[in-house]
# Entry
Amino acid sequence: MTEKLFSDIEYNYKTIEERISEAAVKSGRNREDITFLAATKTVDAEVINYAISLGLKYIGENKVQELLSKYDEYDLDNSSLQFIGHLQTNKVRQIVDKVDLIQSVDSVKLAKEISKQSAKNNLTSDILIEVNIGEEESKSGVKAEKLYELLDEIKNFENISVKGLMCIPPICDSPQKILKFFDKMNNIFIDIKGKNIDNISMDILSMGMSADYYEAIISGATMVRVGSSLFGAREYK
Ligand SMILES: *Cc1c(COP(=O)(O)O)cnc(C)c1O
# Structure
C-alpha cells in the first residue's frame, strides 16, 4: 500500500514539476522563479518526508494543532515549513517560532499579535496578506478595497515583514473565470510593488492550487500551493 502511495507521489511530483516549468517558461520566467509549496493537511509526516526526499522544499500546514502534532517529525533540515490556513490570534504564539512564513494575515489585530509574539522570540516574522479576491462572505482575507488601509496600519510593526500576497479564489467551473481572479490579484500585486511602501515588499504572489496552478503561474503567481495533485485525495480522519 505504502509502496504504491510512494510511487504515485513520485510520479505526481515529477508531473507537477514539469507543468510548473512549462508554465514558468510560458509566462516568460524560469523554473527557479516559481516556488512549489505542498499543502500537507491530513498527510502523515512520513509521507511528507518522502516528498521532501524527492526534492520538495516547501511545505504548508493550515491547522495549528495538526502542525504541532507533526512538528517533531518533519524533515526541516531539508524543507521550509509555512502556515497557510486561517490563524486565530490566540494561537499565534504556538507557531511563531516554528514557521518561516505566515501566508494568511488579514487583520491589524492578527498582524499586531504576530509582531508581539515575534518580538518575544527575538525574531522578525515574514508574512503575506491574504486577499479575499472573490469577496466571498464565507472566506477569510481582506477585501481588495481595504488592502491599502491594512498595509498602512501594519507597515510600522517592528517584528513583521510583509513579503507579498496570497489568495484562495472562488471555486470556478472554467479556467476563464479563475483567470479573471488571478489577473486581478496580479494587478494589485504589481500596483503595490510600484508604490514602494517602506517595509512592504512584494516578492511573493501565492496563488494556484491543484486544479489551477498552471493558470495561476501564467497570471503571475510566484508560489503555488498544491495538495491533492501531489498526495492524492485527502482522507480526513
Ligand atoms: C488545501 C489547501 C491547498 C491545496 O489544495 P489542493 O486543491 O488539494 O491542491 C492550498 N492552499 C490552502 C490554503 C489549502 O488549505
Notes: The chain has a mean pLDDT of 96. DSSP finds nine helices and eight strands in the chain. The pocket of pyridoxal-5'-phosphate is lined by residues 39, 41, 62, 84-85, 168, 209-210, 225-229 (CB under 6 Å).
